C-alpha cells in the first residue's frame, strides 16, 4: 500500500512533464506554421501577379544621350530632379571643370512608361544633341524561368509544411524544419534576383553625357575654336600613342628578328659550303700522275 501510494504522485509528475514537453514542442511549430502561411500568402500574391505578366514580352532597355548644354552642372541637377519627379532615381553622377569648360555625366533610371516623356524633357535642356541611342535586350525567357523556379520552390515549401504538421517525433520535426529553412533561403534569394530583374524591365537605364556649349558667333559663322583644339589634341595624343606602341612592338620583336636573320644566314652559308664541297667532289676530275 505505501508503494502504491508513492507511485501515484510519481505518475502524475511524469504525466505533467510529458504534457509540458508536448506543449513546448507544439507552440513553436504552430507559430512557424502561422508565419509560413502568411509568407506563403504573400508569395502567392506575387506569383499570381508574375504569372499574369509572364505572357508579355520582357525587355531591358538602355539609352545613351550626349548633349551640348550651356551649363553642364545646372543641367545635371535639373535632370536629376526631373528623374525623381517622374518616379525614377539617380544612379550616379560626376561633374568636372567649371564655367565654359565644364562637363558632367550621370546615369538615371526612368519608368519605362514615362521614358519618352522624360527623354523629350531632357532634350529641351540641350542646345544640340550629339548622340542619341536606345537599345533593348529581350529577357522574356530569363524572366519566365526565374518565375517558374520561384513557383517550384514555393510548392516544395508547401509540401514541407504539410509534412511538418504530420511529424510525430522530435527528430522528424527537426529534419523537416532544416529542409524548410533551406527551401526558404532559396526562395528569398530567387525572389531578390527576380525583383532586381523586374526593376530592370520596368525602368530604362539612361546614361547622359553633358558638355559645355563653347560655340561662338563670329561674323555670322559658327566658330568653335576650343572644341576644335580639343579634337586636334585628342587626335595628336592618339597619334603619339600609336607611334609609341609601334616602336615598343619593334623593340620587343627586334631580338627575335635578329635571331631569325642570323639563323637564316648561318643556314645559307652552311648550305653553300656543302654545295661547293659536293660539286668539287663529284665534278672535279682526278689529277693524273
Walkthrough of the structure:
The chain has 289 residues and is α+β, with helices and mostly antiparallel strands. 68% of the residues lie in helices and 19% in strands. Among the domains are: 59-140 and 203-219, Alpha-Beta Plaits (2-Layer Sandwich), CATH 3.30.70; 220-257. The protein has six helices and seven strands. Strand 6 and strand 7 form a beta hairpin.
Q: Tags for this entry?
A:
disordered N terminus; two-stranded antiparallel ribbon; alpha+beta; Alpha-Beta Plaits; flat; 289 residues; five-stranded mixed sheet; 19% strand; 6 helices
Question: Which secondary-structure class do the elements indicate?
Answer: alpha+beta
Helix content: 55-70%
> Gyration radius, to the nearest Å?
40 Å
CATH class of the domain at 59-140 and 203-219: Alpha Beta
CATH fold category name of the domain at 59-140 and 203-219: Alpha-Beta Plaits
Stretches with pLDDT under 50, minimum 5 residues: 1-7, 19-52, 215-220
Task: Kindly state the number of beta strands.
Answer: 7
The best one-word shape is: flat
Report, as a whole number of angstroms, the end-to-end distance. Answer: 151 Å
The CATH architecture designation of the domain at 59-140 and 203-219 is 2-Layer Sandwich
The pLDDT mean sits at 78
The amount of beta strand, in percent, is 15-25%
Number of distinct helices: 6
**Main sheet, how many strands, which sense, barrel?**
5 strands, mixed
Order of helices and strands: HEHEEHEHHEEEH
Main β-sheet, spatial strand arrangement: 2-3-5-1-4
Amino acid at each position: 500500500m505505501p508503494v502504491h501510494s508513492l507511485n501515484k504522485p510519481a505518475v502524475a509528475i511524469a504525466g505533467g512533464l510529458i504534457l509540458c514537453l508536448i506543449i513546448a514542442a507544439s507552440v513553436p511549430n504552430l507559430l512557424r506554421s502561422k508565419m509560413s502561411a502568411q509568407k506563403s500568402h504573400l508569395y502567392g500574391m506575387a506569383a499570381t501577379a508574375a504569372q499574369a505578366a509572364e505572357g508579355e514580352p520582357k525587355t531591358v532597355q538602355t539609352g545613351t544621350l550626349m548633349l551640348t548644354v550651356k551649363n553642364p552642372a545646372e543641367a545635371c541637377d535639373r535632370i536629376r530632379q526631373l528623374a525623381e519627379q517622374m518616379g525614377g532615381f539617380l544612379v550616379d553622377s560626376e561633374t568636372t571643370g567649371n564655367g565654359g569648360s565644364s562637363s558632367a555625366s550621370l546615369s538615371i533610371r526612368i519608368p519605362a512608361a514615362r521614358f519618352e516623356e522624360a527623354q523629350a524633357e531632357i532634350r529641351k535642356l540641350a542646345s544640340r544633341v550629339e548622340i542619341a541611342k536606345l537599345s533593348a535586350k529581350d529577357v522574356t525567357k530569363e524572366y519566365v524561368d526565374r518565375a517558374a523556379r520561384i513557383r517550384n520552390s514555393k510548392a516544395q515549401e508547401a509540401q514541407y509544411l504539410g509534412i511538418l504538421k504530420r511529424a510525430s517525433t522530435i527528430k522528424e520535426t527537426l529534419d523537416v524544419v532544416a529542409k524548410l529553412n533551406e527551401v526558404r533561403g532559396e526562395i528569398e534569394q530567387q525572389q531578390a534576383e527576380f525583383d532586381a530583374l523586374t526593376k530592370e524591365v520596368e525602368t530604362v537605364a539612361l546614361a547622359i553625357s553633358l558638355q559645355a556649349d563653347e560655340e561662338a558667333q563670329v561674323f555670322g559663322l559658327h566658330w568653335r575654336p576650343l572644341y576644335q583644339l580639343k579634337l586636334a589634341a585628342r587626335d595628336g595624343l592618339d597619334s603619339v600613342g600609336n607611334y609609341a606602341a609601334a616602336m615598343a612592338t619593334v623593340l620587343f620583336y627586334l631580338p627575335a628578328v635578329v635571331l631569325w636573320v642570323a639563323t637564316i644566314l648561318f643556314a645559307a652559308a652552311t648550305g653553300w659550303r656543302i654545295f661547293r664541297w659536293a660539286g668539287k667532289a663529284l665534278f672535279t676530275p682526278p689529277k693524273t700522275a
